[in-house]
Amino acid sequence: MEEDGFTLVTNKKRKLKKAKFIPHKGYSPHDLAAGFSKEELKASVEKCYQELMNSPFIQEIDLIVDKLKELNPKSIVCYALGKIDNLYCQAPKYQLAMLLHIKYRLKIEKALVFDPVLTEVELNAIQGFKIERILVNEEGRRLVEERTLFIIFHGEKFLFENLINTNRFCKQNIIILGNDLKHVLENQLSAGINSVQILNSFYRETIFDSCVLQWF
Hints:
7 helices, Rossmann fold, 7 strands
């Protein structure tokens, strides 16, 4: 038995090199990072933005934009965006591209983002699009005094619960673009909600596979 707790089994007829024991360090979301620079990440998001703008799916997005013009949100908050520096998942970049399109079309100046998996480089790239970072993990507990669009694609159930409970006396200020709340929340929390389903015609089907605009 070696000092590091690893036992090496050898053949008596020949001498083997000592095996090296490498302890398991556990999984981290940053293991999937490609290590791109701020400029490379911005360029990659811009490419996704142009691809989205040139796709037939943009017509479906603009129907949602027209409804948002009626609802008139004054700011945008994005939770659970995901990593934009990811080797295996491109969805966050396309979802960020949709956020940017909505921001530009509605001329909304204030937009904020939070996801604990985002690195400093990723946040700097996102800030390059005039989107501010939220400095603390609010876990969805943001009280809003004016109509606010919350973009939460594939968010955890607790985010929606905390958001609605925190604003239970001013639910009319909440607009949510993302998961269908009727499939996520208990009936009492989703009661009285209005919704418009986005017809997903984007060729990358799973990116916007559950996208509903909802408001109280």
